[in-house]
Every structure is written in structure tokens, then in C-alpha cells.
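User: C-alpha cells for D,D-heptose 1,7-bisphosphate phosphatase, please.
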Amino acid sequence: MKLVILDRDGTINNDSDEFIKSPDEWKPLPGALEAIARLNHAGWHVAVASNQSGLGRGLFDVASLNAMHAKMHKLLAAQGGRIDAVFYCPHAADEGCRCRKPRPGLFEQIAERFGVDLHGVPVVGDGLRDLQAGVAVGCEPHLVLTGKGAPLRGQPLPDNYPPGTRVHEDLAAFAEWVIAQPARTIA
Ligand SMILES: [Mg+2]
Ligand SMILES: [Zn+2]
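Assistant: Done. Predicted C-alpha cells:
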């Protein structure tokens, strides 16, 4: 199968230092849902791996998170696209869990759910932690210059990013790039 793993906030939708706490606050970035639909049409399955420490901090509850994802799935379906699964870390930063990126727990959950080795699977995110978490399980790192990545536009990539990190303007540019690559699948 062909699988890509996407971060959510700042990659698919707008991000906020105040957290995205409700469906009203969840707004897709321009072209992002269309990009996911294009990936799907090219045969890619899409999973999301997202830190949602606002849950652990009590800023919103699971019902609100589910409602945000229902909105995401609905808007995406209207574009002819589909996200297979959303994996999130509900913990606050000080809980020391294994699933909060840059730790690899969400990726391990995805590997288990899909029954695949994630070696070479593209991971796309707007922040260093997204890429570190993916690289820890062998994913191929892709940074988008939206969300927290936007300040890096026009700058050289900082040295602390994983070797081989590819930089894309946004999720649409990533989709265009990966679709143009020679066919590759994972076991
Ligand atoms: Mg993000
Ligand atoms: Zn966690």
C-alpha cells in the first residue's frame, strides 16, 4: 500500500497559539483538502498523527475533538477525499507519555493499525517534532512552510532538522511532488 502520514494543525488546517478548540476554529488551509483528495486519487492512503495536548490541559474535550474531525472528514469528502484514520496524543507535555511527538508512539500505533513497516513512508508536518517522530520509525521527512513552518520561508533549513528533510511550500506542493515520484509501495 501507499501511505502518507500527516500532521494536522498547521499542515491541514490553521494553527493557533491559543489551540484549535472547536469545529468553528478548525479551518482548512487553502488547497490542503484538495491536496489530500489528489493523493487519494493517486492511490495514497492518508493517516493523521496529531499532538492534542489541549485535551490534557482541559482546554477542550474529546467530544469537541471528535466534532472537529467530523468537520474535517465532511469537508474532505466534499472534495472527494478521505483520511483513513486520525491518531492523536491527548496528553499534556508534562505527562511523559510515549505518544506525544517528537516521541514515536503515534507512529507505532499507525504501523500496528495498518500492519505495515513505516520505513520510507513520507511524514509531512509544519514542525520539527513531527519529522523527528516519523524519522524515529524510519519515515521520510517532509516539512511544509505553513503553520509553524511559515517563518522558515526563504531561510535555509536549520541544522537540527533530520538529514534529507525535503521542504515544500504547502501540502499541495508536497502532493504534487510525491505524485510525480516513481511508484513506490511499502510492505
Ligand atoms: Mg503542526
Ligand atoms: Zn501522549
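User: Anything notable?

Assistant: The mean pLDDT is 96.
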